[in-house]
Amino acid sequence: MEERLQKILSASGVVSRRGAEAYIQAGRVTVNGRKAQLGEKADPERDDIRVDGRPLRAPEERTYLMLYKPRGFVTTLSDEKGRRTVADLIKGCGARVWPVGRLDLDSEGLLLLTDDGALTHQLLHPSHEVEKEYHVWVTGDVERGIPVLRGPLELDGVPLHPARVRFLRREKGESVLSVTIHEGRNRQVRRMCALAGLEVRRLCRVREGEVLLGDLLPGRWRKLTPSELDALRRGGADLQE
Question: Of 36, 42, 37, whose CA–CA distance to 117 is shortest?
Fold first, then answer.
């Protein structure tokens, strides 16, 4: 639950609420790596809150999951329309985790979930440029469409970073492409394909950073291995996109 930072700092015993305001104004408090603002709210369970560089809370064991999200599930923990959510698939994991990023209702594949606010911020912040690779089944003129997908392209008037696009194979009258991006605009790959004159029949995320979906089955989840977690924490520094 989000609360004002002054209240969180005071409740933690670090400083009084009035003293907390002075700490924030002096730039001594950060939330997810950036200087906090007076009046800002945060979630002490989810966000990485630090005072003078020290975590507000003692380090705890965190949970890091990989889920193969099937089509027909929304990437939320609850849904006002009564649709099936990814929370239905991870019951019994033993922790209050949340999705890192999104996959739309009609898309499938790799979805990371965690209760680590700092890692969530790192993976989602555009400056880290974490790669996301999708396998996309399309119909249409692929020879014409692939150069368009490779850019330059714009969505909503904003230029996109060039995508890496490879033809993989033909399958039952459809072309299967590998599309790698590091941005996360709403339905980005589908909209890029539409601009290229291609109709998406199926879309599956197979990689995020160095973490691969592998042979995980739809609807199943597992914990990340230590090496996978280390790769995610390294971020995009040693990746190309």
Answer: 42
- Rounded to a whole number of angstroms, the CA Rg of the chain reads 20
Give the H or E element holding residue 86: none
Residue 104 structure tokens = 């739309």
Are the beta carbons of 156 and 140 closer than 8 angstroms? no
Q: Residue 64 and residue 80: Cα distance in Å, rounded?
A: 26
Q: How far is CA 56 from CA 35, 48, 82, in A?
A: 14, 8, 37
Report the DSSP beta bridge partners of residue 134.
179, 205
CA 211/CA 206 separation, integer angstroms: 9
Of 21, 11, 19, 16, residue with least CA distance to 56: 11
Tokens representing 140?
A: 């249409």
Find tokens 């990437």 and name the residue.
75
- pLDDT of 23-73, one tens digit each? 999 999 999 999 999 989 998 878 889 999 888 865 568 899 999 999 999
Side-chain half-sphere exposure of 165, counting CA atoms within 13 A: 24
User: Among 5-14, 99-108, 144-153, 200-209, which is the least confidently predicted range?
Assistant: 5-14
Q: Which residues are catalytic?
A: 104
- Is there a cis peptide before residue 218, judged by omega within 30 degrees of 0? no
Distance between CA 16 and CA 11 in Å, rounded?
8
* Collapsed DSSP state (helix, strand, coil) of residue 115: coil
Structure tokens at 122: 């790192």
Backbone angles phi, psi at 93, to 5 degrees: -75, -15
